């Protein structure tokens, strides 16, 4: 069993309008856009990162918004709901705020004893706010007060026909099963970062998901550094997984592999972080390009839709 993985690092999804995506996460949810860059493999598409003040691992939701792209179709073999932590007792205030921003699909329930507010993102993605005591310092520059602001990720759910093999993978990665409620089994890493939970939601006979705007592209798990990542990669390969070499993503090093249920997993380093090329006070304000795309700057600045 691995002991290097600390919890969720980031979650990356697909979107359509970059302007609507930016407005939703920075205004409705009050997160900070900590990095404005482009997709390494498709530089004509933004890569937008939203999180706390500095983009702490376990707080960052990222998007590839491709204008006018078709919506995905929900199903099995994908990340279902991405959940964030809010302070205990703030569900009502959040429902009111989301309604004021005309957010779709607002409802509430309780899972594993925690109150949740469920709602849809601008492309129909499934999101939730979960009440929990959490000492993380929130970003308050987005118009949400400290007493109700989002603290970072709570968990993500894997929607699968059969969760058995994925459960074994999570156990190998250091997760422990902590409970079952209906068709949902929760796993968590003891001593990890606060974004330490993964739910497996079993949907027997469910139709396969089709990726598009609103779909999660991949989920990334946190390790401290390159040395820890090398150990994880070696152990995964020895277990039979096909794992990519480490890839420099400027703000972290990344390796990728497919889970048994077909979900793309990433293992990302916490180093060097999002402030490696911008002052903390101005994170996310300038277009930062991977060095291999810097020669395209004039073209990309003319082509990419202004966000603000």
Short account of what is shown:
The chain has 308 residues and is of the alpha+beta class. Helices cover 17% and strands 34% of the residues.
Structure report:
17% of the residues lie in helices and 34% in strands. With 308 residues, the chain is an alpha+beta fold. The strands form two sheets. An eight-stranded mixed beta sheet has the order 2-3-4-1-13-16-15-14. Strand 2 and strand 3 form a beta hairpin. The protein is globular, with a radius of gyration of 18 Å. 46% of the residues are buried. The model has no long low-confidence stretch (mean pLDDT 98).
In terms of topology, how is this protein built?
Elements: E1 8-15, H1 18-28, E2 32-38, E3 46-51, E4 60-65, E5 78-86, H2 91-100, E6 107-111, E7 114-120, E8 126-131, E9 152-160, H3 164-172, E10 176-181, E11 184-188, E12 197-202, E13 216-223, H4 226-239, E14 247-248, E15 252-258, E16 264-272, H5 297-303
Parallel strand pairs: 1-4, 5-8, 9-12, 13-16
Antiparallel strand pairs: 1-13, 2-3, 3-4, 5-9, 6-7, 7-8, 10-11, 11-12, 14-15, 15-16
